[in-house]
């Protein structure tokens, strides 16, 4: 980690100096994760790619005004998030749609030959429940498990404490678990209620 | 132990990095040993990981090419911008050069056509005819008020030469300039067409139009001259030298600008002048105003102009045939006399050069006679040596 940070520090210095090789290196290192990260905030692949292009290009254009920064990752993620949210809003392109995420989840699962139907149901239920979480909680879950980001990094991107991130993860999973476990109970209560009303 | 595991829910397993790591590193057959919460945690984890949207390798390389193209275009634009700035700079320089030269290039070019050290007699170049040579040591040149003739007087004789008719427009602009060149050992006094008076000291050259323009009076000087400029508010009088331009409205001043000296200086007797000289930035001029009783020295090389108080008499007395010296070094006196008389003056050793002398020197005698006055007072002696005057310590006659 320290080595990585060090590497980024020198990469940043070279970017500030306008070293063309440095921009290539930055792209090689960060293109994959930046795309996946951007897709957390939008479902529009083209929009996310546009934003990554702008992000690196701006870095080149305004490299002389860049602050001394030893955390490129944090800078890149925060900037990209801002860009994606801003352009999504501006262009009214695509709002975060749960239908799409559900489809994606199902599609991928269906290809698995070993999966039985119960398991399939369980996974799509989980996927739907994640989609029903409040936006902030869903964002944190995605960063934590999709992108495998450590707590301190999420805390840096979202400007909240590490403890808040951990608590949010805990609460989100607990909600999903309780809703999965309680689904039969809820159904039972609903039926009871309807039954009593009939009487 | 088993109870502990039962109490641990999926949210505990997934929110703790150490436990999470164990789930991620689970081996095949994990499902058989795992409890309900562990299986649930794995399911949630699987769903979340599956949600990750990956960039395809095609998208990745397309985007890479786009970013590279943008950066290259920006680099090109930057070079283009810099070239544009550079081009504008050249234009600005060109404009100032154009104005500077359009103002005075013709007269400056004409001034360059004759070198002071290539002539032995004073020469007067008029608008018409060949150069007129003056053999006498000192001469007076007067532009007559009929504006068509010039009178040259020396040693009691005088001759009237025709100059151009101001009513006839000259197509060849160059020929409108007049020039007087005074070699070493000679002096001349010129009454210009605007009735300004110029005393030219030895080794000097003055170039001026045969008829001054309506809005300005420009002359080019190399060497030393004393100006008594006739007052004319409408037509400012400017003395152009290699490094220093002196702009006047009507005043008496002396300009020293020998090409072989690094310092161009101006002594103002009365009135006011404005000095203009190149700043360290090419194409840009700096200006300073002078007040009477001061001397301004321009170090052309480092664009420094220093002004200080002086007795103007000291610097202008040569026009009346004497030198007024106040604490002047023998070296500077030697230099001035050698120009005045066109005789090389040398020193036996450098120590003599820095000795100082004050007083009046009458310049009616020969160079040797004048220098003897100084050496007598300072306890030195002067000897003629192969056409050179050598100043040295007095030799003991014993």
TrEMBL record, chain A:
User: Pfam families, alphabetically?
Assistant: Sigma70_r4_2 (PF08281)
Question: Which keywords belong to this entry?
Answer: Sigma factor, Transcription, Transcription regulation
Q: Which InterPro entries match?
A: RNA_pol_sigma-70-like (IPR039425), RNA_pol_sigma-70_dom (IPR014284), RNA_pol_sigma70_r4_t2 (IPR013249), RNA_pol_sigma_r2 (IPR013325), RNA_pol_sigma_r3/r4-like (IPR013324), WH-like_DNA-bd_sf (IPR036388)
Q: Which Gene3D superfamilies match?
A: 1.10.1740.10, Winged helix-like DNA-binding domain superfamily/Winged helix DNA-binding domain
Q: Name one GO molecular function term.
A: DNA binding
Q: Where is the RNA polymerase sigma factor 70 region 4 type domain?
A: 125-175
Instruction: Tell me which family the UniProt entry assigns to this protein.
Output: Belongs to the sigma-70 factor family. ECF subfamily.
Record protein name field = RNA polymerase sigma factor (Sigma-70 family)
Q: Which organism is it from?
A: Mangrovibacterium marinum
UniProtKB/TrEMBL annotation, chain B:
Q: Which InterPro entries match?
A: FecR, FecR_C, Ferrdict_sens_TM
Record keywords: Disulfide bond included?
A: no
Signal peptide range equals: none
Domain named Protein FecR C-terminal: residues: 322-383
One of the Pfam families matching this protein, by short name = FecR_C
Q: Name one GO molecular function term.
A: sigma factor antagonist activity
The entry's keywords: Membrane, Transmembrane, Transmembrane helix
TM annotation in the entry: 76-99
Q: Where is the FecR protein domain?
A: 183-274
According to UniProt, the name of this protein is FecR family protein
Its ancestry begins with: Bacteria, Pseudomonadati, Bacteroidota, Bacteroidia, Marinilabiliales
